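Help!! Second protein's tokens look totally different from the first
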Amino acid sequence: MKKIALVCALCAFSGFAGAFAQTRGSVDISFSYARQQGPGSNQFAVWVEDAEGRYIKTLYATRFTARGGWERRPESIRQWVKKSALSSLSASEVDAFTSATPREGAQRFRWDGTDSRGKAVPAGNYVIYIEGSLRGESRVVYSALLRLGEASGDVEVKAQYHGSAGSERGMLTDVKVKAST
């Protein structure tokens, strides 16, 4: 009888533990970047939030904005600046995800299913965001809702443009997001 109770307890615990299991899924993000002429452009960030809008991790942000440019130019990738709580991050935390604005062409980033502290997140719904400052206050925000750790394949990407950018809309194009389990 004790063996049966022990087996039942172990099964129940493993089911309970499975509900909180950490995921090993990953997400590949790619897009084309075309440098724009003029002030107030060429800044972008790629980050992850959970489905409830809580910040998880920044994968990349252009150095100008991340290292203080957001104070001189508050409209620069402002959604990311707010969500990441950039003003409260240390220089070493910022250095972990920044670099100079890249060369034109294909950009690739991978989210390994971890948060900003390097801990695996639970399987579930997450949103990949890509925000770009097109010119002045004009910007684009791409979003892709995905189910990490439970589904593989291409994820639908939606674009939302803010402001009156015209030709600058070509700064970030051909955005693709693919989830893997």
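Here's the second one for comparison:
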Amino acid sequence: MLASSSISDTVGRGVSGQKSIDVIVKGWFVTALTGQWAFAIYILSVYVTPWFSNIDIGEVTPTQGYHTANSFDYAMFFAHIIPAAYLSLFGAMQLVPSLRKKYPSLHRWNGRIFFTLGISGALTGLYLQWGAGLRLSDIGALGITLNGILIPIAIFFAWKHAINRRMQDHMRWAIHSFILVNAVWSFRLYLMGWYMINQGPLGNSPTVDGPTDIALSFACYLLPMLFAEVYFWLKKQKDTKRLWVGATFLLTGALITLIGVVAATMMMWFPRIAQVAGLIQ
């Protein structure tokens, strides 16, 4: 009787651990989605609204070297930045299981658009960094450069597994693709969150090549990819201690994202949106 009760308690704690993980991940998703939409509103406000309001984008964009870019570089810049609004508005839809099941055709077409724009964004981003020279420093650009190289690789494997109907592998690579495509967004979150916690820069530099800048430029995708792998691993676990340790680890990641979303919105995106609104008035 005691043994049976002990087993029941253990199973109950294991189920509770899985439920806690699901709650954390759902909360994390809502937080990230809020941040994605805030970023999309920022892009539309700063880079689309000026076209219809006779505002010089150069007055509101934080992009270094914008005024000295030639016509081709301008085209590459907008080909890189405008699709990011679509990726931020609709990319996260791919991660919602109910939408995948209820609207499989929408999932497939939105996924194709996401993959196409993701690869396009990686290639135009690499060109802008190393072809157009829109980078603040060589060392500071290495983390995002590696990110740009990894995006097409992850998307290729996600596409390959989808074609071969290996849906679990497809989902895994699709999530990593999503993380990599949104790495520059994550970098803004991590950087602004770091500023908020420290009440200013610490290990940062104006050319984004300080030790913290370099670390964050790699962490902005490697850390979320680690969180994703831990989540996949936890889904297979039954041990109570592992589940609760894993839940704590994922909760840490969710809190990092929450801090970053608040910081980036208040310190980076909202002021630019307000600036554009002021110029329109």
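Reply: Different proteins will give different token patterns, so don't panic. Residues 23-56+65-280 form one domain.
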